[in-house]
Amino acid sequence: MATKVLVTGGAGFIGSNLCEYLLEQGYEVRCLDNFATGKWQNVTPLLDRFSERFELLVGDIRNMEDCRRAVEGVDYVMHEAALGSVPRSINDPVTTNDVNIGGFLNMLVASRDAGVKRFIFAASSSTYGDSATLPKVEERIGKPLSPYAITKYVDELYADVFSRTYGTEYIGLRYFNVFGRRQDPNGAYAAVIPLFVRKFMNHEAPNINGDGEYSRDFTYIDNVIQMNMLAMTTTDPAAVNQIYNTAYGERTTLNQLVEALREFLGEKDPAICAIEPTHGPNRAGDIPHSLASIDKARRLLGYEPRYSMRDGLRLAVEWYWENL
Asked: Which ranges of the chain have pLDDT less than 50?
């Protein structure tokens, strides 16, 4: 009997990529999504290709009954469902809290009661807050700078308490600026890479918050899939009930990102090379610099990221060129 995995938020950017990979590897997959930010076009092809092993549940993690239905008969949970975006959380902290903490707790309780073997969840680099230390190491964090960051840190605390109190096995993955195919370039809370790609492809100038010297550890989606699989399949007792940075381990400024995008997109449309970005004020709640140490993931999970930022960016540009 095939191993069954629940992916919450499975119609989203990261979730749908996880669903697709798991299905291609022969797993049975159930997707739970309320389509608040997930997209039908991310999962309908999977329903066609893997009709016997892929199940879609339309439901909300804020509803306990939906959570209990979703975990029934499941071996592992990959919990990706959340309301992302620092600005969204500043504009609407209540809904962010309801989904990211209330929904997370519902999923933990439902998974505990269903006897799920391991609960793998999307944590966030925003947890490092105002810590100026670089690179970021899992054991040292600062004060959160946004409601979103608070919610993701509280999730880590809940997972740890459930491990100590109920014996729940968990692994939390602190994602660092994930990008790649299917990441939405539209809407008020679009991430920087797809947003800039769309602007360039439309021959519009992207707007950089600040002077462009803020830096991020941009992480290609396939490295994130790799970490999720390592988290699910590890049999090392020392590796579970841990939090891991999920990143490439290299820092790129926004100015460097723009140059790389102009380079890759300019190969397809030379006019893009001449487009200069504009600059605006720094954004509230933003961390100036982000760089992950991936030593812990290397040591305990055997993680060696397969895609550099540039390799991933070239693949992402190819996808957007064909699909936008």
From this structure: none
